[in-house]
Amino acid sequence: MVLSPAQNRLLNIAALIFAAFGLAWIVYLQAIRGTTAGPDFVQALKSGKVTADSVTSIEVVEPPPGYSAFTASEYERLTCLATITDQTAISHLLTNLQSARPGRYSQNHPSLQTHMYLKVNCQEDFFWLSVEEYQDARSAVLTVEANTRNALNPNGATLYYLRNYSEVLDLLQQKEK
Predict the structure, then answer these.
(1) Helices (H) then strands (E): counts for the chain
(2) Helix 87-97, helix 166-173: angle, nearest 10
(3) Could you give the CA distance from residue 77 to residue 73 in angstroms, rounded to a whole number?
(4) How far is CA 173 from the centre of its chain?
(5) Contact 154, 145 (CB under 8 A)
(6) Which residue in 164, 20, 175 sits closest to 101, CA to CA?
(7) Which end of the chain is more exposed for a tag (fewer CB within 10 A), N or C?
(8) How large is the C-alpha radius of gyration of the chain?
(9) Least confident range of 52-56, 68-72, 77-81, 166-170
(10) Can you give the pTM of this predicted structure?
């Protein structure tokens, strides 16, 4: 079957429209859905919008192997390793996280030592954080990817790092909290 030039043009236009909608859907799924406006957790902490008194608990959650959780159902299926409810421990964690610096710390071929998610539950909402410890031959660093309030999409998170973080890991790795 041979198409006329007008039919061919219409078919090309339809294909372009379909491709544009497909691309828009992918952008929405990867970059927009699950994000919220406002400061990320570390920004909210540094500005005083989040305080130790407003945090009711911090759940230490095992991340899924090989991918990041994006949806509420994916997060709900993850294993909670511990829940921190002790206000002193929460206060120490938040004090340490306030010193987190934005950006990435340069390392030479670092290896991942520890990876966990934190769900910081506040009185009315929550923040998800992805915490990873990296080491290379010369340094060790703890990275924190901080989402905004009630956001699930890790693509909207802001990256921070801590150089002096041993107390943070000690608090997070205790089983009885």
Answers:
(1) 5, 7
(2) 150
(3) 6
(4) 19
(5) yes
(6) 164
(7) N
(8) 21
(9) 68-72
(10) 0.77
